Amino acid sequence: MQAAECRSTLTALIEREQHTLAALNAILDAEFQALQTQDTAALEQAAVAKAERMQDIEGMERRLAELLGHAGYGHDRDGIEACIAWCDSTGVLTGRWQTLLESLQQCQERNRHNGAAIETHRRHTRSALAVLRGQSPAPSTYAASGHTDTGDTGTRPLAKA
């Protein structure tokens, strides 16, 4: 494979992945808004769109691995950077690659943030359900007997009161 052909294909892949990551970032923002407003329809829509973008990214990653393999490089970060250094003496691809990595990091941070919001909501819901069932909303702990204590307060569930 010649450097010019590799550079052209790599440029197209990086640009396509950058556009996909921008779309994914917008979806993650919509997902966060849906979590904040508890809009289940919007949350489901965001989940479907997120899964589609992830499939797109996986396809691009497979294509990138094939390209790097044909050029004689590994498909890890070092291989990509070595390939870029080989095929792009202008440094343009290096800048695009760095921008892509920054976008990827943004997506990961937003996804972690959304995951934390989901976990907080899940804990709140579990606690509310425990109260309704007449259980302690506190997490299970070990009793003096060494067995787990479910936090049952011995009271009747709110639904039976």
The appropriate CATH architecture is Up-down Bundle
Unreliable parts: none
The strand count comes to 2
Radius of gyration: 24 Å
Q: How many structural domains can be distinguished in the coordinates?
A: 1
Q: Give the fraction of residues assigned to helices.
A: over 70%
Return the CATH class.
Mainly Alpha
Range of strand content? under 5%
- Count of runs of 4 or more consecutive helical residues: 4
| Average predicted local confidence, pLDDT | 87
Rounded to the nearest angstrom, the distance between the terminal CA atoms is 76 Å
Protein structure class:
mainly alpha
Label the overall shape. elongated
N-to-C order of helices and strands? HHHHEE
The CATH homologous superfamily corresponds to FlgN-like
Q: What is the third-level CATH name, the topology?
A: Methane Monooxygenase Hydroxylase, Chain G, domain 1
Sheet with the most strands: spatial strand order: 1-2
InterPro entries: FlgN-like, FlgN-like_sf
Pfam family, one: FlgN
Function: Required for the efficient initiation of filament assembly.
Region (Disordered): 133-161
